[in-house]
Amino acid sequence: MKKLLLVTFAVIGLLPYATFAQATTEYTWWNPIQSSFPVIEGQGWPASALQNPYDRLPAKVEKSVRTPVWNLSHNAAGLLIRFRASTDQVVVRYVVTGKKELPHMPATGVSGVDLYAVNSDGDALWCAGKYTFGDTIQYKFTGLEPNDTYHQKGREYRLYLPLYNSVKWLEIGVPTSVTLTPLPVRIEKPIVVYGTSIAQGACASRPGMAWPAILGRKLDRPVINLAFSGNGRLEKEIIDILPDIDANIYVLDCLPNLVAAAGTKPDELKEKITTSVKTLRQRKPDTPILLVEHAGYSDGGTNTIRRQQYNDANVVMEQAFAQLKGEGIKNLYILPYSAINMDTDATVDGTHPTDLGMQEYADAYERSIRKILNEPIGDVVTLKPRTQYRDARVYDWETRHREIMARVQSKPPRILFIGNSITHFWGGESTGATLRGADSWDAVMKPLDVLNLGYGWDRIENVLWRVYHGELDGYQAIQIALMIGTNNLQLNSDAEISNGLSFLVRAIQTRQPNADILLIGILPRRNEEARIAQLNQRIAQAAGELNVTFIQPGTVFLKSDGKIDESMFSDGLHPNAEGYRQLLTKLQPYLKPVEADSKRKK
């Protein structure tokens, strides 16, 4: 009996070790610098121009910039790597070259990484990870939801790199059963920030909480962080190379390193500001430039010397701004101290923001830059631009955006037809989807040079993102047909849909002021006929207020009892080939014939 018990206890004692062994996960490791295309976002120069893979300045300036600037340029602040995977865990291991923490900034901010997932509705979701800081730093993100409810193709991930340390090497691991797909750097023009320690990221708790990173998520745009702790001084050597980058906007936020306490006299400061702006204008005559005032010190209410320092610097900034505007410098803007409005509890040491302060900075920047770029947002989802990845089983949304951007730049279209899957599946070139009405499209739309800008499963807010991110820029269309909103029916009220369409039309008019806009009512669909009829009345009224043409070709699908004719649909929502032919009979009279081009030019 004793022998039996001993054997039993021995077996039980081994069970935890056996279970642990079975739970061990094998990983496949990916080194980003070995990718065949650029994947490190946040760099203004190609890899071939850099001394090290994770540098922020090109090798050509090593001898011209001051040594502290060059050394800080090796810090990976602002760099991020995107990839897609259907996985419940991600492991990151890497080596840095400097101290892992600072007295006023934790190791997670100085040397840590930060991971965000982007779901199929375009929401950025933070991922919590467990970390160890040794010779090799490791972050392990577990318990991740591999997919959302739309498909099993996984999620996009964005990995932010250390703010105040240099990355020697880095690998990203996923379980061997998982496919990790690297994503290329985004094609949108970046926001370029030249700044100080605050913009570099001091003292964020983690890389994703530096204000340039927050701003990048808010605007969903690449940001290039050229901030150098204690050394953002509007120096000629940096200003001269900023135009190498084809920026969406240049941000000059260097006043914290140019106050009197740093040895900068008022006349010298004014000269630095005006010379920097004029230098940028010589090579980039139209790109917006945003000058930023000193945000102040949180002890400014009690320390008169410190308060005087930032007040004096801001007075000089305002004088320089007024002088430049008076000299006719266009597209020049200023973000004043009052607009940043830092809370008294928003810094670690009176100067460097906490995460709260970083959020306040980012909020102020977002408000300012949205006005400059004419990209307003509203309070409801239909007024907030978003990407999406809902129809991944059929096509890749981001790839289609890249293809459309290339197409409109290489061969500007006469007419745009903007929509969702109903448009996407109709016909045209390189749609990436199975076409259901190619014959009718080729017969009528192709001769009119209509470009299909339909994206499967798009909603109003997704089209707004596409409009804000360049699909209508750089050319002039003669007409734009807009048919969107059916995918909002299950999520939004009629008022939200109608208001969203009005908001979207105004955004289109801003970018294509000479194009005639044809606003198409939402097509009837199974079990939604009555609601859609009422909603289209609201949309028609909005179209009148916007001075655009509104039509309802979808009535061709209705029977006498007000229900859809199922014979013209494949699924009660998408028309079949005959449905598209019938739709076109109602739509064609409103499309601009080629002869209209010559009349328009006259």
Question: How would you describe the overall organization of this protein?
Answer:
The protein is an alpha/beta fold. Helix 14 runs parallel beside helix 15. The protein is globular. The protein starts with a helix and ends with a helix. The N terminus is likely disordered.
Write a compact overview of the structure shown:
With 602 residues, the chain is α/β, with parallel strands linked by helices.
CATH class of the largest domain: Alpha Beta
Structural class: alpha/beta
Distance between the termini: 107 Å
- Radius of gyration, Cα only, in angstroms? 28 Å
Q: How many H/I helical runs? A: 18
For this structure, the quaternary state is single chain
- Any guess at the CATH architecture of the largest domain? 3-Layer(aba) Sandwich
Helix content: 25-40%
Uncertain residue segments: 1-22
> Largest sheet at a glance?
6 strands, antiparallel
Beta content comes to 15-25%
SSE blueprint:
Blueprint: H1 2-23, E1 27-30, E2 40-41, H2 67-72, E3 80-85, E4 89-96, H3 107-110, E5 114-118, E6 124-127, E7 130-133, E8 137-142, E9 155-160, E10 167-175, E11 181-182, E12 191-195, H4 197-200, H5 211-219, E13 223-227, H6 236-239, E14 249-253, H7 266-283, E15 289-292, H8 304-326, E16 332-335, H9 337-340, H10 355-373, H11 397-410, E17 415-419, H12 421-424, H13 438-445, E18 450-454, H14 460-468, E19 479-483, H15 494-511, E20 516-520, H16 529-546, E21 549-551, H17 577-587, H18 595-601
Parallel strand pairs: 12-13, 12-14, 14-15, 15-16, 17-18, 17-19, 19-20, 20-21
Antiparallel strand pairs: 1-10, 2-3, 3-9, 3-11, 4-8, 4-10, 5-6, 5-9, 7-8
Helix pairs in contact: 5-10, 7-8, 13-17, 14-15, 15-16
